[in-house]
Amino acid sequence: MNDEPDRVAINSPGLTRVSSFARTSVQALSWSPDGTRLAVLSAGNTLAIHAADTGLELNSVVVGSDDPESQDIANVSWAATEEVVGFSGSHMHGVWQPHLASAEIVHSEWSTDTHAIDPSGRWLTIGGYSAWTLRLDTESHEVLWEREGFAWFCGDRAGSTLAGISGDRLQLLDAVSGETTVEATNGGINGKMTISPLGDLLAGCVDSSIRIVDCATGEASVLLEGHERPVVGLTFSIDGSSLISWDVDEIRIWRTSDWRNVIVSRTHSLSYGRGDTIAANPADPSKFATAGSDEVTIYSIDLSEIDANLVDQQFLYTTARVALVGDSGVGKTSLGWRLVFDEFVEHGSTHGQQFWTVDSLQRKRDDGASCDVILWDLAGQPDYRIVHALFVSDADAALLLFDSTRREGPLEGVDYWIKALTSERQLCPSILVGSRVDRGTPTLADDDIAAYCEYHNIEGGYVSTSATEGRGIDELTARLSEIIPWDDLPPTITTTVFKSIRDYVLGLKATAGADVLMSLEALAERFAGDVDGTVSREAHAAAVEHLERHGYLSTIVASSGDMYVLLAPELLTNLASSIVLEARANPEGLGALDEPRVRALGYSFPELDGLAAPAPTVLVDEAIRLFLASNLCFREVLGNSRLLVFPALINEKRPPTSEIELKHDDTYAVSGAVENVYSALVVLLGYTNTFTQQHRWKDNARYQLDADEVCGFEQVAAPSGEIELVLHFAETARDSTRNLFRGLFERFLLQRDVSVVRYPAVVCACGYLQDRTSVIRRIAEAREHLYCGECGERIVLPSGSERLAISMTPEVELGASQAQGRSRYEAALVRVQRLADQRGSFPASCFISYAWGDEEHERWVERLALDLTNAGISVLFDKWHNVTVGARVGRFVAQMAEQDYVLVIGTPEALQKSENSDPGRANILAAERDLFEQRLTGTERAKDSVLPLLRAGDSDSSFPPLLRGKVYSDCRTGSDYFGSLFDLVLSILGIPFDDPAVQDLRAGLHPNQR
Q1: Residue (of 855, 836, 875, 821) closest to 637 by Cα position
Q2: Residue of 560, 573, 567 whose CA lies nearest to 626
Q3: What is the DSSP letter of 160?
């Protein structure tokens, strides 16, 4: 197998090199509106204007630091109608009129690589990765509007539409007002985007693929496969006839009329800048410019030359995912087996998942796309729904099973699954299926079933079946074929190479056996030996990525950084269900498991039986990572145990009385995919650095800001498939605290795919808080008033329930950003802990030196100590280990010197106390000074074991002389707390920052360092 694909000449058919000029280390390019000049951003923040035909430099300016090694600016864009160039980068955004000798900085707070400039050059829109997005007047610097930050951002050429990625959502915005016009799932878009000149299409990078989105609806229209490496940039030609995409060494040109990949040009000289290093000419649709390693080159496209000589034969395919759901014991697996294999096999109830390809439903669409159908059989037991609910959101159709012979509440389980399968307030195409009709008489009349289907918009109607006798199976198959939205499924256009790998991997799935998990390298070697030894590793990685997107397999990055391919993705889901089963069995009702024991395979996980190493540990680690990343559990240290706590599985009930009484506030009626809402809220509210989790019980959680400022919420039983969430506050909680907690609660709630209605708490003029259920009932009945339950006075009710909108304040956004950062950190820690175990990095220890007396500062230090302990690091911390009497002080002082690392938290107060010697802690302070001096004057290893963390002031005012100028991490703002924490954990565990096993994790935790 070759590591590098064969290269072809830069002048591919239909592509001609026109001219070039020298320029090194180019970061970004942009054409002038008339297509005669190029704005070129290169090393040292140099922004230069070149004549396109001769390459002559016409003018230049340095923006930011003039250090040749510095690169504060990342991207440039020339306004469509005026002589204005916009730029953005690390904490510097502005405009430059190329005839002037200097540029103007419009905004300098956030770091972002992307921006959009109005055609006139008057308005610049910039986005912060986790902060705000601003629309700014480039002359007055006035803010026109502001929005939540977008990770990636772009604008159309007309200046009317903006597009941004926020979490898993794609939003199209009106550029003038900033209001969202279209919102949809982002479909995996995780990088650069571009909008077509007509504003009708958006193209976005999805790893090595390209997703084309209809701007009118936000829906994907096609997925393009061809690149073997991640796509780093995209641009449409000015007439929209072609789309140019590129990775680190390959340019592909797609004809937009039929999305054929008509030109492929591979070269070793492509530059990989932070911005767009390929730019389409805005005056000539046939020309574009590229940045190479030491030159800028202009090319010409002639699509007429390549019609009879297409680059590669291409294939179209798509996949429909069908969810087979229902309560436990209704015969789902037996029915699925009958649908797939046309035979009856008795299957007992299981918490597992089954995965089948339904050959009888395969078809070819009019556009030539081959259509496959995947059937997912999801276990129905309530405890396992917290796992399976993660997968049903992608269903294109569903079969809703119930036992038609059941006497009481036969459709109760169906009610739940209808809610779970409702996305964007619409149920996916579904069929109501009565099972086991051979075992008794149906208990529901045909008219009642028809009315039920009509009420719930079950478009496929009702089919009665018997898996045993095969009754109704043909009708069910035909009806399923009718309701699958074949024409709405976006086609994937793929190449011969990818199709050959796809066919080979799908063949392996049927015969994998114990080899169900293999490394990407092992898969590539098997393919090379059996089929074709010339396909690159990158092509295999891209093909696996494509198959995962369609649900055929899963990929897992192991602690070593190596990618593994799981040919049976249901195995991971079944393992996760077994973990849930063990957590439910916690003898104290805590819904918790001992994490080290889980990772040591100390519980019963039958799914792992017979699997060869390293499959069991890789799968267990991935299951834990999935739980943490999905906010279904959180880590907690209890005594000497490190627990994984699942809020949804806690059985402990809240005691009837507590020290602080809380009163109810607003109520939120939530419908849709509600299964994991409560768990996620418990976890995320505890993940903010603002509120500390005080306690949680079954369906109830409390948090505090200060001792007497307690906030909380509870989950109240509601109709099947719905929940009510009620806020609670202590009377001593300030309005600002209530607003912050409420804002964070709503912010996290609306991140879920649910519909939310808010009912306000009602208080009489006499101060009596009215009964919550009475208020909700009367508002729902459109009543205008009620009478106070205390004084009898008439109270005017709000006009109606209120559909929830996000409460946007900087404090709320900061808290939300902190919670998202902790989610990423906790998930990343899974791999790091396993890596440290394998390399013998444990046990590892540290001592924390800090100043006493500032309550806020002490809370920060204690949180740091807890976070390090959660990472498996032994922390010597005076609040936990030092009782300042007698011999114990001496023991504590002796333990300080035994620790592997010393963390010095620098503040002016810490420096002052170390110099003045607090009488109550004189022995400890003297020991700390001696410890610093011994290590900093010792070996290089000893010097490296002292890590100064700057928390306040500056280096000179917060550290003793030996530590000045040696700051390990700047922790003053807290904006990158989890990135800094992750680096600190790596250092203590002896894992280098550039270790390939952790590079992707560090990149995810340092978003502002992209």
Answers
A1: 875
A2: 573
A3: S
Q: Report pLDDT digits (tens) over 900-910.
A: 999 999 999 98
% the chain with pLDDT above 70? 92
Model confidence pLDDT, tens digit, residues 948-975? 999 999 999 999 888 988 899 999 987 7
Alpha-carbon 705 to chain mean position = 28
Verify that 301 and 389 share a domain, yes or no. no
At 8 the pLDDT is 33
Q: Smallest Cα–Cα separation from 229: which of 518, 541, 660?
A: 541
Strands 92-96 and 554-557: unpaired
Residue 822 lies in a domain: no
CA-based nearest residue to 556, from 601, 593, 511, 523: 523
DSSP label of 359: G
CA distance 315 to 317: 7
The helix (run of H) or strand (run of E) holding residue 243 is strand 242-246
How far apart CA 503 and CA 498 sit, in angstroms, is 9
Asked if the structure places residue 827 within a domain, the reply is no
The strand pairing partners of 933, in sequence order, are none
817 domain-assigned: no
**Number of folded domains in the chain?**
5
Please identify which residue in the block is written with the tokens 């550039």.
Answer: 994
User: 300 with 15: CB under 8 angstroms?
Assistant: yes
Rounded to whole angstroms, the maximal C-alpha distance in the chain is 91
Q: Could you tell me where the beta strands, DSSP code E, fall in 90-160?
A: 92-96, 104-107, 115-117, 123-127, 132-137, 143-148, 152-155
Alpha helices in 361-517 (DSSP H): 385-388, 412-420, 446-455, 473-483, 496-511
CB atoms within 10 A of CB 358: 19
Which range is least confidently modeled, 185-194, 351-360, 759-768? 351-360
Owning domain of residue 468: 314-488
619 with 693, same domain?
no
- Exposure string (b/e) for 437-450, b if CB count within 10 Å is 16 or more? beeeebebeeeebe
pLDDT beyond 90 at 90: no
pTM of the model: 0.89
Q: For position 1003, what pLDDT does the model report?
A: 87
Q: Are residues 532 and 467 in the same domain?
A: no
Do 777 and 718 meet the contact criterion of CB atoms below 8 Å apart? no
Between residues 809 and 517, the one the model is more confident about: 517
Q: Quote the strand ranges of 769-821, DSSP E.
A: 785-787, 794-796, 802-803
d(CA 314, CA 224): 10
CA distances from 217 to 181, 214, 423, 429, 838 (A): 9, 6, 15, 19, 49
Q: How far is CA 268 from CA 10, 140, 294, 466, 534, in A?
A: 10, 45, 11, 62, 19
Mean pLDDT of 566-578: 91
